[in-house]
Amino acid sequence: MSTTTHRITLIGLGTIGMSMAALHLSRDNTIVDVFDTRPDFEDYLVKTLPSFLASPNSETGSHPGEVASLVSSGRLNIHSSLATACASATIVQEQGPENLDFKRSIWKRVESLAPASAHFWTSTSGIAASAQQQQLQDKTRLLVVHPFNPPHIMPLLEIVPAPETSPERVEFAREYFSIPGSRHRPVVIRKEIPGFVGNRLAFALLREACHLVQEDVVTAKDLDTILMASLGPRWAGNGVFESYQQGGGEGGIGAFLDKLGGTMQEVWDGLGQVSVAEVKEKVVQQTDEAYGTSISEETRWKKEERLREFLKVQTQRY
Amino acid sequence: MSTTTHRITLIGLGTIGMSMAALHLSRDNTIVDVFDTRPDFEDYLVKTLPSFLASPNSETGSHPGEVASLVSSGRLNIHSSLATACASATIVQEQGPENLDFKRSIWKRVESLAPASAHFWTSTSGIAASAQQQQLQDKTRLLVVHPFNPPHIMPLLEIVPAPETSPERVEFAREYFSIPGSRHRPVVIRKEIPGFVGNRLAFALLREACHLVQEDVVTAKDLDTILMASLGPRWAGNGVFESYQQGGGEGGIGAFLDKLGGTMQEVWDGLGQVSVAEVKEKVVQQTDEAYGTSISEETRWKKEERLREFLKVQTQRY
């Protein structure tokens, strides 16, 4: 499969779209076609894409000539019409607004413009493929490929098919991200569910975090310190089940649940059942106070470098 | 404070106790007195402690002569009576059984044996200081110092006072773990609550993880992959509030909650409300299948080295 050239059409080049473009361009068997409705699209792309393409060891992250050279070599094509963008696609991937009407109508248009064999991927974090595919003639070709920000660095891709999506289309997406040497880790989710898996886990933890701040058990900043000083590095090294399997001593997670099941049930039964509306004010106030309300490009760049370092440590085999 | 010599008595030298001994011995201003009721205590200590003391770059992790040299230099004293172990303590720290009757009676005995100024720290993960201090004459001296496994590597210490604990005792514990150059990060929790903060956050995520496995949305192994490929490395770099502050774009976590509050509330309202008993069978079966039921010393050692590497990346300032 890695010898086949894939032609990927990206619709919607906001932050996630730019990062997705960088992900696809980092492979040697791709041609990327990009389309966005913003009037200054080409200028914006030329200005913005380079910082996503730069090597992790670059000092500045800025290579202004790189887009021009990708265009002249034919690796990157900038389109001002959806029709030309989709005409030769192997894969069409959208990162448009999170709005069901938009998704349904864009896929209907794409279906009329792209080759009949093309795969349709949506980067949505919230709108299931089964809802998006309603106006398609061929409902078997659409599935969710949900990345985590920023996708050109973060390994996870949640592949979430609708019941009508064909298994071959699911396998194609999984294989696309599984080529040897890729740092990406596609995982197929077996049922459509709000938030898929990654965000459900994040939101479950966040709800309790908001509850503890709301109840003055801990400040937002101290809670972040707790997470970074314990669970973050633990779960960067091993998942939650593997951690309890190994932390439980003899007998693994079964023994752990036998020993601590009472405490765990007490905590589960007492978890905060808060609403977004009731926790928002205090959480926003404490978070703004702790971190300020803006982040510089330089800081963002250094954070991304650190994320790459974590992932390098993570993939050290033993 | 770092020039004062602290004399720490450790009661209970299981895995956590051994790791705690290594933590205290890694500092240059400590004398450590150890006491445990197991009949082969001294042999066990000589055999077990070295692997906790070894340098992270050691090939084997085994330095059998090290305990003897610590003993002969006076840094480590092995006791066969609680009375001699406590006689000169600045701090008495217990890692005994998680049993309220045991905790109450050991503290009563310790109070009769230790200097009146000594600080009493319990490493409990589940029994509040206010419950443990019931039989003490001076209830102001006891507080929880809850480590995360393994404490000689993992930075977090949750300091959880009872309402009757004196603020000076809390500040002493916080300062003890805050000396310049220490990798440890003490955090004071403002209210006693089951599971404190770290385990509440872990258990909140674990409950949803168990629910998703129980409902066949994802396998235990795939869920672990999802966590390692997204939230683990993210939260190793920044806490949950800081991550949303910066991932929310302009306007930070406030804008994020405005934009995604509907989806988040839908996920919050739909989180699994499962019991330990109903999820246990499938979770244990899938976890055993994915990881086996035992872990070799060598693998454990390599995992610890990787954890140290994550923490090294984490403390790179920017």
UniProtKB/TrEMBL annotation, chains A, B:
Span of the signal peptide: 1-21
Protein name: L-gulonate 3-dehydrogenase
Organism: Aspergillus mulundensis
Enzyme class: oxidoreductase
Subunit-structure text: Homodimer.
A GO term for molecular function: NAD+ binding
Location of the protein in the cell: Cytoplasm
Pfam family, one: 3HCDH_N
UniProt entry tagged with the keyword Signal: yes
Domain 3-hydroxyacyl-CoA dehydrogenase C-terminal residues, every copy: 195-252
Residue span, 3-hydroxyacyl-CoA dehydrogenase NAD binding domain: 8-189
Site entry: Important for catalytic activity: H146
Cellular component annotations (GO), alphabetically ordered: cytoplasm
Record-linked InterPro entries: 3-OHacyl-CoA_DH (IPR022694), 3-OHacyl-CoA_DH_NAD-bd (IPR006176), 3HC_DH_C (IPR006108), 6-PGluconate_DH-like_C_sf (IPR008927), 6PGD_dom2 (IPR013328), NAD(P)-bd_dom_sf (IPR036291)
Gene Ontology BP term (one): fatty acid metabolic process
EC numbers: 1.1.1.45
The family this protein is said to belong to: Belongs to the 3-hydroxyacyl-CoA dehydrogenase family.
UniProt KW keywords: Cytoplasm, NAD, Oxidoreductase, Phosphoprotein, Signal
UniProt keyword Oxidoreductase present: yes
Superkingdom to which the source organism belongs: Eukaryota
